[in-house]
Amino acid sequence: AAVPAPSPSALTASPKIKAQLATYATTETLFKTEIRRQYPELELGPSFTRDEGEKEVGGEIGFNLPLWNRNRKAIAEARGTRDLSRQETIQLWKTELFNARQLDASQQMALRHCRTELQRMESFAASVRTMEKLHGIGEASLLELAENRHQLYESRLAFLDNLDKLLAVQAQLRYLTHANL
């Protein structure tokens, strides 16, 4: 049976793409952190003072103004890193989608080859059975029987070779969305 190729939306559940999305989320957070450094830092908290023996409790509000444009280089670098991570994520998704489509096409071709070889093998097996009956009654020589058995053997080898290719492609298709990191 054919293994269904993952859809474009199912590929986002791929562990490789999830890891790349986590990297992108990290770079997005770093970019926002750099932007926040450009704005004043507000402070709000309790205040306690002691003046000439008297104690006073109250609130305090303050803010620090950063120098204007002090972090433009850091912001530009963080933006560049974020954009690069976004492009890498998109490129990885496109690559995985292309691989999934290629593997699906390879799987369909291997399935057709397997079915063809299976039919050939069944045909050769019927031919061998007929030849054994003919040899049993003396109508066919041992050489003809051996030749038919050899064809059946070669057909089985071809079938197993195609089956091996099919199973390898199916394993790769399953690995696309279920890979262990």
Structure description:
Strands 1-2 form a two-stranded antiparallel sheet. Strand 1 (41-51) and strand 2 (54-64) form a beta hairpin. It contains three helices and two strands. It is rod-shaped and about 130 Å long. With 181 residues, it is α+β, with helices and mostly antiparallel strands. The mean pLDDT is 85. Helices cover 69% and strands 12% of the residues.
The helix tally amounts to 3
How do the strands line up in the largest sheet?
Answer: 1-2
Could you report the average pLDDT, rounded to the nearest whole number? 85
Distance between the termini: 27 Å
User: What is the 3D shape?
Assistant: rod-shaped
Spans of 5+ residues with little confidence (pLDDT < 50)?
none
**Tally of strands:** 2
The helicity comes to 55-70%
Largest sheet descriptor: 2 strands, antiparallel
Task: Note the beta-strand portion.
Answer: 5-15%
Secondary structure elements and pairings:
Blueprint: H1 15-36, E1 41-51, E2 54-64, H2 72-136, H3 142-178
Antiparallel strand pairs: 1-2
Keywords for this structure?
single chain; 181 residues; alpha+beta; two-stranded antiparallel ribbon; 3 helices; 2 strands; rod-shaped
Quick summary of this structure?
Helices cover 69% and strands 12% of the residues. With 181 residues, it is of the alpha+beta class.
